Amino acid sequence: MDFFNDFRIKIIIIFLLVLISILAVNIFELDFYIFTWLENGIYNIMSPFFNLLDSTGNYLSGIYQSFFQSRELLEENQRLRQELSEQVIINISLNEVARENQRMREMYNLDSAHIDDLDLLGSRVTGQAPSSWEQRIMINKGSNQGVEERFPVISFNGHLVGKIINTGVNSSQIMMVNDPDFSVGARVSRETSRATGVVRGQPGETGQLIMERIDWDADIEEGDLIITSGISDQYPRGLPIGKVVEVFSDNFGLSKSAYIDYNLGNQDLEELLIILEY
Amino acid sequence: MRQKAFYILALFLIIILQTTFFHRLPAASYGPDLILVVVFTAGFLSGSQTGIAIGFLAGFLQGILLGSGFGLYTISRMLIGAAAGLLKGNVYKESLALLCLILFFVTFFHEILIFLLSEQVILRVGFQTVLVNRLLPASFYNMLVGMLLYILMIYLIPVGGFQDEQKN
Fold first, then answer.
1. Which residues on chain A are in Cβ contact (under 8 Å) with B115?
2. B16 and A53: CB-CB below 8 Å?
3. Membrane-spanning residues where (chain B) (predicted)?
4. Residues of A in contact with B33 (CB under 8 A)
């Protein structure tokens, strides 16, 4: 009976009350202003440390590179210059096509949400949230720079990376496309197919997403590029998500699903673009 | 009081390192979950009361960094802190081989808890897949790296700090 003395009973009761409160807040999705205020306050206090550590790491890495990797940097510089001059030529011809496309759209009164129209903000990745079940990263831009929740985020090559889920004063958190809670309307980008579905993140480090709710007779095959459909208004249409690697029957043949290779390892993400307006 | 300040300082340091640096390490997808090790160490060395308090703080801070505030991790970390406190007085703090084993099972139990309480995970992945691809490798990896942190912590902890501060 000594085990259940007054002190221990008090601790056990407090412990259970805290547990029940947390469960209630989560199950019923209660939103208390004081909690939100507290969370934002603590996040804003901690985020400068992440930014500081990230800047220090980059500074040290820069020193290391300038001392020990100067030869590689020179070679890379030369290669990039060559690629740039090739891209300039390609760009000129693409501009011609874009202008022609614009004229056609105007002729047929088509609405033109295009990647060139996006208002973008560059940011640096400062950290990854400490859980491998959830795929969340942190960046060094926040509400001071006009970032708001739900803004889409893309990589520098235009691939969809995720969306903003929380903003601090000078930092924000991103839920990535491979997070199990993430979902986005998507469609096949092929001249002969516009099949639609919903792309969701997969738990674990599979390197793949899943596209669900595709019509059972939809035309979708291995190698198809999947892009955002733009149906939900939360993402601009046409952002590349990944390529189909496997298509299979789902819901007892009533629909199809597909695995999507999104080829976007966290390790490669250093700079990202936030879409402020589209 | 010095012990609690030490745990809080260690926790902040580990959270900052875990967030900015550890994901660049090899096998980063398996952890290591050093926040869990700090909570376990606090509970094991200083009793359930301290374990629960540090577990609550760790889970809350982790929730903030995940964008979920008071969430799943607050519950799981508190439970680990409470369970670690039950071992206090029953296992020598120097029994490193036994503690290795305990840390393995603590990580394993914690990962199972997260799996069971995450509706987006449990409804979409089979337990066997999670066991082979996630639970066992993550527990083993955390045991190896976590033991280094545990040893570091017992040497750094304030002198005479192994007495439980609770007055019961």
1. 133
2. yes
3. 6-22, 34-58, 64-87, 96-118, 138-157
4. 130
